[in-house]
Structures are given as structure tokens and as C-alpha cells.
Specification:
Blueprint lengths: L1 H4 L25 H14 L5 E6 L1 H13 L4 E7 L18 H13 L1 H10 L14 H13 L2 H13 L3 H5 L5 E6 L11 H7 L3 E6 L6 H4 L1 H13 L1
Parallel strand pairs: 1-2, 2-3, 3-4
Helix pairs in contact: 2-3, 4-5, 4-7, 5-6
């Protein structure tokens, strides 16, 4: 956020319901409500020509927002390590993640949330479990902090959401420029399920692939991602 502030942009980061500092409501923890909440926010702030940057499940939220509410307030879209168009393994997406893997995530989340929120950033989220990659305790601790701030139920429900959702029809409605940014070493959202498929569905898409980058590349490779985002925004 500071990077873009220093380049003269207004930067808005919202916590979706059940996450961060937002209300920990028991209902509405689904992508349609997330998208509608985002629409309410953009209307309340009267945003125009906004560049929407969605990472991981946030990419699905951006796509669903445009799918449900249009793009009259949107200038561009960046999808980073995003779940779009779908991440679940199906007959039409054979390279996706099996349902059992996501069910395992939910089981771990329910059994010991604090332990789970240490294990994910210590391992596959940032590829800290890979040979030659140096783990950052500060990054792991901050991921844990953010996770523990939110609602256990909201987060549990959110996992189900990004498992089952298919954003194909939402992506087809996007005509503004889209930049899909994906690391080919992503262990959370397999590369082949994400950017390469997404850019084929939007009307004006560009794919940028990063060799060896993990799912959490906006943190581990912030300089590269920020500068490429800036170039996209300014182009």
C-alpha cells in the first residue's frame, strides 16, 4: 500500500466480512455477499476509475463483483495468484485441486486454528518448505496474526466458497484491461488452473508468469510485483 501511496495513488484495502477488523457475522460468508459488500463500499466512497487488485480468493471476489454489478466504476483489474476461473478439480479442470485436499484444510482449521495458521505460511503459501528458500519468521507471524483476528466460522465458510465457485461467466463479462499475474511454483492455486485460463475468458487479458514465485508472491517478491502492477496501472 505504501508503494502506491508514494506514487500518488489513493489506496483502499477492505477487510471482507468475517475477516480482519470487519464484523464477524454468522451469515453471508459467501462470494455473492462478498461481492455485494464490495459494491456497497465502492458506492459509499463514490469510487470511479478504480483499479481492482485481487489476490487469491480476492481475485474471485473482484470477478464476482463485476459479474454482479458491472464495471462502470472499474478502470482495470489485476488478478494475482487468483482462484479464477476455478480451482477445484473437475472433468473440465483436471489439473485443479482435489476436493479432498480442501476438506483437509477445513478439518485442520476446525481442529486447531492457531496451529493451522502457523503451518500454512511456514509451508506452501510462501514456499518456505521448498529447498533453497529461506523462511521469514516475521512473515509467518504476521500471516498468523491476520488469520487469528478473523472469525473462525467466517474463515471456515470462506474455504468452502473458493472451493466450489466457478467464475467463468463473471470473467466473460469483463471488458476492461486485465492483468493475470501468476507464479509457476504456486502450491495453493496451481498455475495451470488460474492465469492461463482466465486470460482466455476475459475480453482484454494479459498473462504475466513468474518463474519460481510462490502463491504469496506479493509479499516475498514485493518489489517485482509492485513495479509490474505500477506499469500496468500507468499503461
Amino acid at each position: 500500500m505504501l508503494f502506491f501511496l508514494h506514487h500518488g495513488y489513493r489506496v483502499i484495502a477492505h477487510d471482507r466480512r468475517g475477516h480482519g477488523r470487519s464484523a464477524q457475522v454468522s451469515e453471508g460468508n459467501d462470494m455473492d455477499h462478498y461481492a455485494d459488500d464490495l459494491a456497497d463500499l465502492t458506492q459509499h466512497l463514490d469510487l470511479h476509475d478504480a483499479v481492482h487488485v485481487g489476490h487469491s480468493a480476492g481475485g474471485g471476489e473482484v470477478a464476482r463483483y463485476i459479474g454482479r454489478h458491472g464495471e462502470t466504476r472499474v478502470a482495470k483489474v489485476a488478478l494475482i495468484s487468483a482462484v479464477t476461473p476455478s480451482v477445484l478439480q473437475t472433468d473440465t479442470n483436471p489439473v485443479g485441486v482435489p476436493q479432498a485436499a480442501f476438506e483437509g484444510l477445513q478439518a485442520q482449521l476446525a481442529a486447531n486454528r492457531s496451529e493451522f495458521y502457523r503451518a500454512v505460511p511456514s509451508g506452501p503459501f510462501y514456499n518456505f518448505d521448498q529447498p533453497g528458500v529461506t523462511a521469514s519468521e516475521a512473515i509467518i507471524a504476521n500471516w498468523w496474526r491476520q488469520g487469528m483476528m478473523g472469525s473462525a466460522k467466517g474463515q471456515y465458510d470462506c474455504v468452502s466458497e473458493f472451493i466450489r465457485e466457478d467464475y467463468t461467466e463473471d470473467l466473460k463479462k469483463i471488458s476492461v484491461p486485465v492483468l493475470a499475474m501468476n507464479g509457476d511454483a504456486d502450491q495453493i492455486v496451481p498455475y495451470a488452473t488460474s492465469g492461463p485460463r482466465a486470460v482466455e475468458l476475459v475480453q482484454n487479458g494479459t498473462l504475466k508468469t513468474y518463474a519460481g514465485f510462490p502463491h504469496g508472491m506479493p509479499t516475498t517478491h514485493a518489489d517485482t510485483i509492485n513495479n509490474d502492477l505500477l506499469t500496468f496501472i500507468q499503461s
